[in-house]
Amino acid sequence: MPEIEECSSSVGLPGEAPGNSLMGKYEVGRLLGRGAFAKVYHARDVRTGQSVAIKAVSKQKVMKGGFAAHVKREVSIMRRLRHPHTLRLFEVLATRTKIYFVMELAKGGELFARVAKGRFSENLCRRYFHQLISAVGYCHSRGVFHRDLKPENLLLDDNLDLKVSDFGLSAVRNQIRPDGMLHTLCGTPAYVAPEILAKKGYDGARVDIWSCGVILFVLSAGYLPFNDPNLMVMYRKIYKGEFRCPKWTSPELKHFLSRLLDTNPATRITVEEMLHDPWFQKGYDEAKFLHHDLDFDLDLLKGAAAEGDLEGKCLNAFDIISFSSGFDLSGLLGDGSGCAVEAERFVSAEQPEAIVERVKEAAEEAGMRVAQRKGWSVRLEGQGGNFVAGMRIDRLTEELVVVEVKRREAEVEPEVEPGRSLWKDELRPKLLGLIYQPDEPVHRD
């Protein structure tokens, strides 16, 4: 959700009156808030009756303000995240002048509004921190770094469970420079990590952990750990890590906060290390902490609760479009480079078994080791472990499937195979014939 600011601009839906219909799909209700180039409305899905939030964005304001890349990146990031504690993007619609983001409605409002009324009990702090770290760890596993975590960007659903929102300042793995660091200065002053202030590059995951530490302090204390009317004085406190816990803070929480707010990013606690911390361990649900490698979650593609729960589930048009390797929003926002996806995906009309056999055949011809896993899933390995790839197939409709390939490929020694890529030079060309073209007949057996 956007940061809500008072603004005189008019960016809403046609007529901006309750009861308007957006493309015959959503009945638009009251205005929830407005930002510099967007308005957010309560709406109802006409078909299902589900309440949603619709963010209406002015194309003209986005282009004039130079925010096209930010909007593209936010959409690209949100459509790849499917987690119980991240705000979900359902659909993107567009007209000649506006873009509409149809999102999950967080009926409970901002976490900030609740903590502003008074600090939380330690157990309630722990509950929300578990949910926050579950979401943040998931995002990091997907190569997404939020970079603006704060209570204002943490929303609550109707069960008062946490939803991480506002990915407008997020970074993705391909933005990391050759030195292994991110360099863009961003974030909210009171929540920014000391290494960002040092302007020497930073690890996106570790700055998110720092911000989580500030959030936990705010929830338990009711005020900021680093605060001063003079911005430079506040920055000096952050840089030196000067904060003091209130007297009611338990020894275990004090120790945990000291590890979260460690000014040295190299020794700052990680998500994995949190799982062994005495304060964090109490009451946490291990199922919430999802570990990801080159395998794929069904819920990312289908929202399925279990591996066998696939029948009758189809994706909407936005989901199908977003699965193509050429996904971008240029048609909606105009020219400009977007954020490249890490995984390559394509839609195919071939039967899953035939696709698996084609991939295995191509991999074996390239001298790779192939291991077929449960269902329509294959793991490939070659070049002495320098190349590892996972492929997963899931059904979109009765006739179509989506194929997702994620790979990790290290550089090969130049004197051995100069400029050679197993994926680009060997495997990918042999799979191009599997891609479904909309005007071609669908194979039916």
TrEMBL record:
Gene3D superfamilies: Kinase associated domain 1, KA1, Transferase(Phosphotransferase) domain 1. It holds the Pfam family Pkinase. The keyword Repeat does not apply. It catalyses: L-seryl-[protein] + ATP = O-phospho-L-seryl-[protein] + ADP + H(+); L-threonyl-[protein] + ATP = O-phospho-L-threonyl-[protein] + ADP + H(+). InterPro entries: Kinase-like_dom_sf, NAF/FISL_domain, NAF_dom, Prot_kinase_dom, Protein_kinase_ATP_BS, Ser/Thr_kinase_AS. Residues 26-280 form the Protein kinase domain. Residues 310-334 form the NAF domain. GO terms for molecular function: ATP binding; protein serine/threonine kinase activity. PROSITE patterns: NAF, PROTEIN_KINASE_ATP, PROTEIN_KINASE_DOM, PROTEIN_KINASE_ST. It comes from the Eukaryota. Belongs to the protein kinase superfamily. CAMK Ser/Thr protein kinase family. SNF1 subfamily. This is non-specific serine/threonine protein kinase.
